[in-house]
Amino acid sequence: MSTVKSLYHIVINTKRREMTISEANKRYLYAYLFGIIKNYNCTLIRMNGIANHIHLLIDLSVEISLSNFMRELKRSSSIWLKSQRELFPTFDGWGKEYYAFSCGQSQVDSIVEYIKNQETHHNVATFEDEIANMASENLCECYFYD
What we know:
Structural class: alpha+beta
């Protein structure tokens, strides 16, 4: 039997990076996202975010490509979020893009700590600064769309 570990640090943002995921209700969204992740036989290691974006650290299943997984995660959760107007009254959709960086097992602890501390981190850094820094660290470019 083969053994595969395919770790990704993924960031998705709301449309136009609007602050539409309230601190009080984000746990409902996280539970829904966890269900999607589990349904695709992926393993969630850590998830957290602020009102305009979410970080996920996952072990992607060999049964699905990253692009197909992200399409389904964003599509399904967008439909659900829009059906939950009492919890997410201003949610208008996810941004067109997502950011995914592969990582090794030796990086997991530091990424988990980074994800856990999103609220504190964003007292001093914008979403755009954060993604640009992550892209630079991973030797790639990033582009922002509305």
